[in-house]
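Hey all, quick one. A colleague (J.T.) asked me to put the phosphoenolpyruvate job into the tracker so the inputs and the structure tokens live in one place instead of scattered across chat threads. No bug as far as I know, just bookkeeping. Sequence used:
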Amino acid sequence: MARQNGPVQSLTGTAASSGIARGPWILVAPEPPPAGGRIDPGQAEGEIARLAAAAEAAAGDLERLAERVSSSGHPDEGAIFDAQAAMARDPALATLSAERIRERGEDAIAATLGAAGELADQLRALGDELLAARAADLIDVAARVARHLAGRPEADVPRLDEAAIVVAHDLAPSLAATLPRQRLLGLALEAGSKTAHAAILARAYGIPAVVGVAGLLVALADAAAGAHLEGRAPVLAIDGDSGEVFIDPDVAVAERLASRAAAADAAASRGLAEAALPAVTRDGVEVFLLANIGTPDEAARSVALGARGVGLFRTEFLFLERATPPSEDEQLDAYRRVVAAFAPHPVTIRLLDVGGDKPIPYLPIEPEANPFLGVRALRLAAVRPEVFVTQLRAAYRAAAHGQVKVMAPMIADATDAATLLELAERARAGLEADGIAHGEVALGVMLEIPSAILVADSYFGRIAFGSLGTNDLLQYTLAVDRGNPQLERYQDSLHPALLGLVARSVEAAERAGIELSVCGEMAGDATAALALVGLGITRLSMSAGSLPEVRRTIRGSDFAEMRMAAGEALREPSAVAVRARFEALRAGALA
Ligand code: PEP
Ligand code: MG
């Protein structure tokens, strides 16, 4: 139904890439893949050979695309297409397709599309957002192979004659990468998640994006019909920070968005301008602000915003979405890039933290009833020590080029800490024996299981540092699933029980004379950061975006006041009461 003069329609999706875009929109509908057909049994082997050649040609295309994206300054996003090339050559896809050709009499096109569909369904059925997003890659790859088979290898890329917001149900990553970036104002997708590759590319290219907007395409079709009747072009506005999408925004909405965009720009400029200022309290206590990063590409922004090193480099990105483990050299390359970006400051590499909740094909783990309480993180060393030894070798080699620290996730007690030290010694001694250059690495643990804190005195003397992973520490202290939205009331890290464990860690670290930091989300929450500093934490590691506000809040506060409030907070009955106390301090700091 066309709306003539209705109110502005707004929809909400998931904020996937920061920023505001407003302008005309263009609908990008995926070109349907070529239609498949049937063959006679005698043609099966020839058809399988034709499929193998097309898969190889598609893999070649994807490697060239990977090269193009990487050499435009986005190596991590380029890797998406290297992974797609590997999918094109995946024996599982080839075997299943060949079966369909031989047993069902499908031609190569029908077989490859059908086999990819089957495998994608299996990925989606695992119930993991990341793996479901990879199903889209598989379908994208199969469509490319099918186009090769049909003799028209290139998909039509929308030209975007004028700058526009691209709207689609979902966007294949290869299409997202080839859209003309100068004229791409933003992305609005009916489907997709924050971890879908189209969203990852949008973030890397700095293009605002909102995904998972239910009802978007129908609403836009409606609006387009209405606009056509009125003889005007329909307009769309998206807010990649709030997840809002406005169809035909009126002047009031446009002004509101413009002022949001201006405020965000001003905050970003102010954050950059203040990046070099130390985070010192008014009464002279210096707090070191470090960055949490998940890929080497995030280093530049963190450095620009004044991070004095990396307190948590999550290394899972190297291990997920691939058929074989990353080599030592590949890991060394990633670690060296980060070490170089942050020199002379230290980079803390966290050993692999995966488990039953994130299946990895080359690290099979028995299905578990409670993966968060199962064979996760360093616990995998009992069955696959070589995974950690290789990672540690790469870290020791990176240490020849700058300051490197390594910490182990999910340490429960002194025995786990000893496992870390043994694995590290194996890595170091191996490099020594092989005559490979390496440097010194400080070894530490993540404090994210309450027992590790309760028995800290039994092993702190043997390690160089501890880092409080408050995300898991809260989960394991309050027995509350960190991802369950129904348990929100338990998910505030300012819970007095958690503060008690932080206080205990500070005392144990002082007794052992080792360094202590916080790298859970709590450190980037400006209100909670005041509580942590009050409890004696002087190293806070957070996502780059949180650095400016935490810095400003600390600079406006008095340590003496924070310390007193933290002491009282330990005796409060609830997180609500603690938060109210520190919010009052924070309001004073920013006044
Ligand atoms: C944590 O648990 O606080 C932490 C930093 O690790 P992750 O969020 O990666 O589990
Ligand atoms: Mg953790």
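Adding what we noticed when we looked at it: Residues 44-71 form the longest helix (28 residues). The longest strand covers residues 20-27.
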